[in-house]
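User: Please run a holo structure prediction.
Assistant: Happy to. Please share the sequence and the ligand.
User: Here you go; the ligand is beta-D-ribofuranose.
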Amino acid sequence: MKHIIVDCDTGIDDSIAILYALKSNKLHVEGFTTVYGNTSSMQAAENTLRLIKLAKCGYDIPVLVGANESMTGDAEPYPVHIHGDNGIGNVELPESEQKPLNEDAADFIIKKAEELKGDLTIVALGRLTNIAAALEKDPRLPYKIKHMVVMGGAFHKPGNISPYAEANIYGDAKASDIVFRAGFPMTVVGLDVTMETFLSARDITLLCKYCREENREVVQYIQSALEYYFQFSYESMGCLDNSVVHDPLAMVIAEDPSIGEYRMVRAAVEYENKEFRGMIKRDEGFIPVYDHDEILYCIRVNSDLAVRRLLSVF
Ligand code: BDR
Ligand code: CA
């Protein structure tokens, strides 16, 4: 069982990753910390609480509201055309009785890393603002966790927010740079692989047919939320009834890294030059010294297997 904290900006693809984590019997979610991005960090926490209730996972999971702006204070408008006004495709899920914990998200990450004595994996599905804040408070954090999986970046493919940058990395490029250079044992799952992994309307129709009875409501939610997402996918990329799903792939990889292939790099992120903001600057030529100074970035993935895994938990 992997113990994870999910740091997320609960939009549509985050929500599917969250539901996967809650349903997987190989992952134990220690808590959720939220960050602005697809929606505000407050709304992301509200969405997460409702998803926990929907998943009926049988144990209380702390949800903490994290950063609501980037380290440099830049505010981007929320992408309501992708994730809807409420972040989850305007699907109205029943309210949860649970409230967010009144604790600092960065402190919570540090506390859990200490409690779990090297056995914590962080899965970061949004901007890296909370992780950078935790690092600022505890520079030894990289040495206290087992691993971190980050959905973000584009190494060989073009970006999705600018020609050079992916949205999560661009959204707080300074935090990304700090985190990328901090020595975290980390895997980066970027557009190079997420843009190759599609979920289709047919997959979801089959899922509706074959899901376990106890997951019916969860699957109905996924279907409704994806309808909104597919619309964006059609308008922006011409994909008919299917879409790439970024965050769920990162979650499946966090659970089982063997579905991907990786290259070891040392990387930094451009945050000063406006045009290239969020661009990953990599150095593949270094000799790893096994002091946690390397990043594994995912260059290939078995997409069919990833999608089958994703659907199998429901
Ligand atoms: C990333 O940006 C967000 O919109 C998605 O949730 C994903 O984490 C993809 O660029
Ligand atoms: Ca996300």
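The mean pLDDT is 94.
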